[in-house]
Every structure is written in structure tokens, then in C-alpha cells.
Design brief:
Elements lengths: L8 H10 L24 E3 L9 E8 L4 H12 L12 H8 L14 E9 L7 E2 L3 H12 L9 E7 L4 E2 L8 E5 L2 H4 L4 E6 L6 H4 L27 H19 L6 E3 L30 E2 L5 E2 L1 E2 L5 E2 L4 E3 L4 E3 L6
Parallel strand pairs: 2-3, 2-5, 4-6, 5-8
Antiparallel strand pairs: 1-9, 7-8, 10-11, 12-13, 14-15
Helix pairs in contact: 2-7
């Protein structure tokens, strides 16, 4: 009963078969695209809670990390709460769509998201191959090593694995997932997410659209037409979008009994799953949509703190009944 599939392999395969210029090709406006469709989606509320109280994020850096990559991730997470110094469209603007989801108490997903703590597991305490279940043990070990209790009231724990850590199903079926800890394993029940750094393992799968998948052969024009990463590292920038995806879903479906489509809670289709590959207006068929370019030609659609720019996939808007982001042309 795990949250699954950040990346739909078959979706990507179709994208690459039909569009050789993945990130920069023009959209076919004659074709129906998911970005503008509401007829195929049956997103329902299943009576469980959303994260309506202020969210305290706890990052667990598992393995050997580049400090520059860590700084990019921190800046993204710190961009989730509004800042008067951040231009529009911002990461906080993007989070407003997630905030539209509420539960039976009448509470909406909170807009108060803060990094409350960080743990550093440089010693790979549970080895360099992690199963899904072992993520919960990683969390328990990290918290115990700091001599602090687990924050079961407002905490969300994020396990971020480094380039040399293999994770069950990573690069084959998932780039990240979210779930909740079992009291029998971690001592308490808290929501958590995992995201892996794909740089040396599968950037073509998990750093879309900044990298080219190996199974698609050589990229056109030697890769010169691939979209550039706004923070200088394709795997980190790809990881940001996966992290955003999982945060949106863990907030709107923390115990896998709140917001999702489908009848099977063991394989729910959640608010970010519905918008895979959609980053701007007109997206579909392998085209990421209308996004901005910086002076070096790197793609982005959101602004963050400290002058950062990010490319983050859209999520399903329950009012508009379609994928939506603050960079939408309408």
C-alpha cells in the first residue's frame, strides 16, 4: 500500500516516440491534451484528513551530498511560504492550488510550511540499498540520533537519498513516493516522503525534461536542444519537481484516505499524478507547455527565494477541474 509512480514510464515512452524535440517542440493544439481536460478525471474525497495545521518539514540527507545541491533543495522548500521579495509567479503561488483541498473538518491544506530540522546520515546507517519499508527505519534512526522525539503532530519527514544509494523500484517504477510510518516500525504514525538523486542512475527517467532517456537512443543534435536546468544541475532540478509532486500529494492525501482518483487506495491516482509532464499552458504529447527562459536559455516556470528559479510540474485544480499553475496563460 505505497504511494507510487511519480513518473509514468509509458507516458514518457509515447512522448519520445512522437516528439523528438521533447522540451522545445511546439504543441499540437488540434489534439486533446490532459492540461485542458476534465472529462477523464474522477477525483474524489474519501473522508480522510489533509494537512491543515502548519507543516514542519524535517529533511534527512541520506548519504553523500553536494552542498550546492542541498542549497538548491533548501531554497525550494523555503519558497513554499509567501515572501514579499519573490516575484510572481512564485513557488508560493503554485502552492495555492494545493491549498484548495480541504477535509471534512472544513480545514484546507495549510500555507504555512517551514523547514524545522535537518538530519545528516553520512554513514549510510541502513546501507546503500533501501527498500520501501526501510525508509521508515531511516527516519526512526535519524530522529533517535538527534535525541529528539518524532513530531507526530505537525511533522512531515523527507528522506532524500544521494547519487550512490539504490532504492527499491527507483528508476524502474518511481522517482519518489510518499506514505506514512507504521507505529510498529517507527513508534508513531507520521507522513513522510522519499525522493532520490538520479544523477548517476537514471537522469533520463527522473530529471525530465533536462535529460534524455537512454532507451530513446541519442538525443537530437547531440543534446543541444534539451532544456537547460535553471539551477545548473539536471538531476537536482529534476528532483525539485519530484519533491514538489510528493509534497503536494502528502499534504492532500497524507494517510492515503483523502483526495485521489480511482477505487484502489493501494494504487491511488493523486493530484500531481494527474498532471505528469505538464509545466505550462498547452502541454501535451511530450510538450511541457509554455514556460519561461532565462538569459542562458534554461527553462523555468516559478520564482523562489534568493533569486532562485524552478521548473515544477502543475497539479490538479479542483475548482477549474484541470491541471493548473500560476504561469498559466489564462
Amino acid at each position: 500500500m505505497q504511494k507510487l509512480h511519480y513518473f509514468n514510464f509509458h507516458f514518457l515512452l509515447l512522448c519520445f516516440l512522437h516528439f523528438s524535440l521533447l522540451a522545445l517542440s511546439r504543441p499540437s493544439y488540434e489534439a486533446n491534451n490532459y492540461e485542458g481536460s476534465s472529462d477523464l478525471v474522477n477525483l474524489e474525497y474519501h473522508m480522510g484528513p489533509v494537512l491543515a495545521s502548519p507543516i514542519n518539514l524535517y529533511i534527512i540527507w541520506y548519504g553523500s551530498w553536494n552542498p550546492g545541491h542541498q542549497a538548491t533543495v533548501r531554497d525550494f522548500l523555503r519558497s513554499l511560504s509567501p515572501s514579499s521579495n519573490t516575484p510572481h509567479p512564485s513557488v508560493a503561488d503554485w502552492w495555492r492550488t494545493v491549498r484548495l483541498y480541504s477535509d471534512q473538518t472544513g480545514g484546507n491544506v495549510t500555507g504555512d510550511v517551514a523547514v524545522a530540522g535537518e538530519y545528516f546520515d553520512f554513514g549510510y546507517s541502513h546501507g546503500k540499498f533501501l527498500s520501501r519499508l526501510s525508509m521508515q527505519r531511516v527516519i526512526k534512526t535519524a530522529v533517535a540520533s538527534a535525541g529528539a522525539p518524532m513530531n507526530y503532530r505537525s511533522g512531515v519527514y523527507m528522506v532524500l537519498t544521494s547519487h550512490d544509494v539504490e532504492v527499491q523500484d527507483f528508476c524502474r517504477a518511481v522517482c519518489g513516493f510518499h506514505y506514512f510510518t507504521f507505529a510498529s516500525v517507527a513508534g508513531v504514525t507520521v507522513p513522510y516522503a522519499w525522493v532520490g538523486y538520479s544523477g548517476t542512475q537514471c537522469p533520463g527517467m527522473c530529471a525530465y525534461p533536462f535529460a534524455w532517456p537512454e532507451y530513446s537512443g541519442r538525443p537530437p543534435n547531440g543534446g543541444s536542444e534539451l532544456m537547460g536546468a535553471p539551477n545548473g544541475d539536471a538531476a537536482t532540478d529534476g528532483m525539485i519537481s519530484v519533491l514538489a509532486h510528493e509534497l503536494a500529494e502528502v499534504s492532500s492525501n497524507p494517510l492515503v484516505n483523502a483526495w485521489y482518483a480511482g477505487d484502489d487506495p493501494s494504487a491511488p491516482t493523486e493530484i500531481a499524478d494527474l498532471c505528469l509532464g505538464v509545466y505550462g499552458s498547452g502541454a501535451g504529447g511530450g510538450y511541457v507547455g509554455e514556460v519561461y527562459k532565462d538569459s542562458w536559455g534554461n527553462g523555468f516556470n516559478l520564482h523562489g527565494v534568493n533569486g532562485r528559479r524552478f521548473l515544477v510540474q502543475w497539479v490538479w485544480n479542483p475548482i477549474k477541474k484541470r491541471c493548473f499553475g500560476p504561469n498559466a496563460m489564462d
